[in-house]
Amino acid sequence: MAERNFELTLGPLQFNWPAQKFVDFYAAVADEAPVDRVVIGELVCSKRAPFYADRLPGAIERLERGGKQVVLGSLALITLERERRAARENFDQAAHDVEINDLTLMNWVRDGKAFSVGPLVNVYNEATLAFLAGRGARRVCLPPELPFASVETIARASKDIGVGIELWAYGRMPLAISGRCTHARAHGLSKDSCQFVCDKDPDGLPTKTLDGVDFLAINGVQTLSFKYANLILDLDRLADAGVAGLRLSPHSGDFIAVTKAFADVSEGRISPREGLSRLSRAAPQAEFTDGFLFGECGAAPLPVI
Amino acid sequence: MTAPRSIELVCPAGTPAALRAAVEAGAHAVYCGFNDETNARNFPGLNFSREEMAEAIKFAHNHGAKVLVALNTFPRAGAFWRWSKAVDDCARFGADAVILADLGLLDYAARRESGLRLHLSVQAAAANADAINFYARTFGVRRVVLPRVLTVQEIAAINREIDAETEVFIFGGLCVMAEGRCSLSSYATGKSPNMNGACSPASHVEYREAGGALVSRLGGFAINRVAGGQPAPYPTLCKGVFEAGDYKGHVFEDPVSLDAAALIPQLAEAGVTALKIEGRQRSRAYTEAVVRSFRRALDDHAAGRPIAAGELRALTEGQQTTSGAYRKTWR
Questions:
Q1: Residues of chain A found within 8 Å of residue B124, distances taken between Cβ atoms
Q2: Tell me, what's the pLDDT at B149?
Q3: What residues of chain A lie within 8 A of the CB of B72, using their CB?
Q4: B201 vs A57, A183, B43, B210, CA distance in Å?
Q5: A195 lies in a domain?
Q6: Which of A175, A183, B70, B252 has its C-alpha lying 20 to 30 A from A275's C-alpha?
């Protein structure tokens, strides 16, 4: 069995949290969370960014004092002029590594400057991985919808070209992004007059089927899975496949406990079952899945062991 | 006054018969795919064998039309050869362009240096001038099919900044989400447009009577319910009825299809090179009627005549239509 020495990455916050909650969250991560890397910055909607822009430098400084490697995230769907400008400024700053979540940023890649690739970039095969590695990609978080067979093939290829492969290991998964704001629509509003209603739902707005089955979660222009990805029972398989990193996506509740559970299982201090029960306690309302990797579909429940 | 620019009409063909019908009805170009997972309309009974593709290209060329071959899924890890071979075959058959989305496949096609023209699929969702310029500079992409998230004004601004042609959807099915960046279908069924070339696949659809209503399900999830006796809508995930907080209804989009015929003059003014009709899965008769109607509209536009409105309404079979993201209020 391969050694489980995963690097833990905290993914960018997907939700519209109040500025103070944002600050408190990253302070707690800086001080207490056993994660190695933190990707920070607006992923979903550029209209949210001004609410915490002035808090961002402080949060980054605090994370670095806490020994975390800070990576600047980028918007998932870039269309507006100011979004393009912000993306370019992000890339041209020299202080931090950048995570690309829209290929717009590939336009600013220069020789010798390493970057990370986020899960919203379509890396489905080893040829795409090789292309990105040739341009300077050093870490790639794969799209959540990939089956395990693809992960194995891509991870195998990653070793020869010096790229670390990361998987979406915890949290509601990004399933779609649109020009339209579904959150606003559900409140009878449009994107341009949205009144920032997405701030009412700190983990997204659960969306049920006509049978009352929880199915999706709306998050502004983004659609998430209702279920939380949870790969804590799968770490041995992932290590054997050569996966280098695990991405934990922020949620409200005791998220520090989530990061500790992954660190403890990863380093063998507790069993995967014990890790799972800790995760259930940290997010009692959450339903978990590893279906995209190992099940019939992305919504398949965790197998009962 | 300068004459309006002429615009290329790009039409779908799911079968060789539909391709011939489209060409005869006045398509300037036809797009189609091989009968496997290399294209995003990988439906049973649809698409072209290698022999059919070679013949279709000859037929179209003899009639002065172009054939654009869609290889617009994302190659499966470990099976890249299937997609790269499809590129090779398109070059060998003399296809006028291949429509690609995957970075690895674009890289492969560009390195072949065969002169094969590269178009960027809507599945790549290149939604701004920087992204488009990256594809144009890196791979020599000559034309970009724009994702359905942009307004006409944004399209005009993009065209001023890029060194490539643009093609936009004008009629047919409408994705609500940025194309190529949606895993809703695989979340419910395990099959997705990106990986398998199928969204909300028929293999996972089920219609069942319950309490006097007909419920349509996808992968076991109830997507629609209609009163008994009414036609049940196909359970395409993003057109389904859901409950989100206090809202109950079509959370993502009403069951509408795109009809932007009225915007042809504005799109021409915005500098688009080609208009695309969706619907490789549609019947030959439908294809023929839509193509004929749009060709007339484009000829009217080119001659400076007003475009006859309403003619296409019959083709949407009473369905609601929308001009989608082209108007800002859609968002």
A1: 103
A2: 82
A3: none
A4: 46, 27, 8, 22
A5: no
A6: A175
Q: How many CB pairs under 8 A join A and B?
A: 226
Distances from the Cα of A283 to the Cαs of A8, A23, A276, in angstroms? 19, 21, 11
- Within 8 A by CB and 6+ apart from B282, the residues are B12, B14, B18, B172, B290
Q: Is the ipTM of this complex over 0.90?
A: yes
User: Residues 6 or more apart from A94 whose CB is under 8 A from it?
Assistant: none
Contact A154 B77 (CB under 8 A): yes
Asked if residue A88 belongs to a domain, the reply is yes
A114 neighbors B140 (Cβ within 8 angstroms):
no
Cβ contact (<8 Å) for B181 and A191? no
**Which tens digits make up the pLDDT trace of B22-70?**
999 999 999 999 999 998 888 888 999 999 999 999 999 999 999 999 9
Checking if the pLDDT of B318 tops 80, the result is no
B232 close contact with A: CB closer than 8 A: no
- Rounded-to-integer distance, Cα A108 and Cα B102, Å: 19
pTM for the model: 0.95
Q: Work out the end-to-end distance of chain A between its first and last CA atoms, rounded to an integer number of angstroms.
A: 20
A178 vs B176: CB contact, 8 Å cut-off?
yes
Higher local confidence (pLDDT), B288 or A94: B288
- Name the nearest CA neighbour of A47 among A242, A169, A222, A229: A222
In the numeric block, which tokens belong to residue A158?
């990653």
B1 pLDDT band, cuts 50/70/90, is very low
Report yes or no on A102 lying in a domain.
Answer: yes
Residues A298 and A144: beta-carbon distance below 8 Å: yes
pLDDT, mean over chain A: 95
The pLDDT assigned to B242 comes to 96
Parent domain of A275: 7-174+224-294
Output the domain CATH number for residue A113.
Answer: 3.20.20.70
Give burial (CB, 10 Å; 0-12/13-18/19+) of B212.
exposed
Q: b vs e for A257-275, b when ≥16 Cβ sit within 10 Å of the residue's Cβ?
A: bbbbbbbbbbeeebebeeb
| Interval B175-179 mean pLDDT | 90
Asked whether the beta carbons of residue B178 and residue A145 sit closer than 8 angstroms, the reply is no
C-alpha span between B142 and B134 (Å, rounded): 12
- Rounded Cα distance between A246 and A244, Å, is 7
All structural domains of chain B: 8-174+256-330 (3.20.20.70), 194-249 (no CATH)
Give the count of domains, chain A.
1
Task: Evaluate whether residue A22 is within a structural domain.
Answer: yes
DSSP reduced 3-state for B277: strand
Which of B103, B216, B224 to substitute to test the interface with A, most A CBs within 10 Å? Answer: B103
| Lowest model confidence (mean pLDDT) among A5-14, A84-93, B195-204 | A84-93
Q: For the CA atoms of B91, B172, A121, B135, what is the dihedral angle to 10 degrees?
A: 50
Measured between alpha carbons, how far is B2 from B36 in angstroms, rounded to an integer?
Answer: 45
CA distance linking residue B2 with residue B304, whole number of Å: 10
What residues are paired with B34 via a beta bridge? Answer: B48
Question: Of A77, A126, A146, which has the smallest distance from its Cβ to B80's Cβ?
Answer: A126
Q: What gap in Å lies between CA B37 and CA B280, rounded to an integer?
A: 15
